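Action item from last week, closing it out:
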Amino acid sequence: MRTNKDKTITIPIVNLAIGLSLLTSLPAFASESDDAGWRGDLSASYIANTYDKSSHNSLRSLNWSGKLKYSLTESYAVYLTSGGYRVYENETGDFFTDTVIGFEDRQLATLGGSGKLKYNVQLTLPTSELSRDDELESRVRLALNYAADAGQVSYFISPRLAKNFHRYQTAGEKSLPEWLVSLNAGIAYQWDKLTLSASLLGGTSWSYQHTRQDWTYSGAVSAQWQITEHFYTGLSLSNSGVYFDAEQGTVGDIDLFNDDTTVYSLSLGYTF
């Protein structure tokens, strides 16, 4: 079982998602270009919880992430994403997050006037310290995503199913999750260059011994400002230190929720 010292490594990994999943992925609320060719996103986020810096519970980290996508056609695209982070307290140092390779169909179906249904399949490579400690060999995830807009308001809902492949079924006394089920949903309001959004993530997991964890939820509110055509900045606040999105290269295990850790994030990003 992981000690509290180990958790100082775990939390910054999943904290990455608050700054990246909720800030750098905010453009996903808008209509993404279907043009063939290369697209990318680079971002950096400063993330901290609400404890004073002098507290042993204080967590501060600088996170960075990159995503490269190639559109094969108007419908199909492949992408690669990964990142890392620097921890400033407790177990200090530089660490990698997991790496994700994915394929997506952006035009699976059209439902209603503006509604679009798409899916993606992605493979997680265990490049993070946490995944290597658990001897994760790979993870495969299937996600559906329905998104629509009505004027300046857009929303999405995305159910997800993931299968882990560990070398062993346990890590010490810790029972490792084999199946992960989650539901991610969000709503956003766009006014000129400002986007305000709120999102919710809930999920559960089943271990290799077929025991199920209780459903756990986490939410966040965010604001993003489009500085120029390519640069943007954002601020996010979440009630949990483990809000994640595996598309951003994070670990993504549902059982990592920590409802006692409120965090905020300030991000700067560049798209091309």
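Closing note: The longest strand covers residues 136-150.
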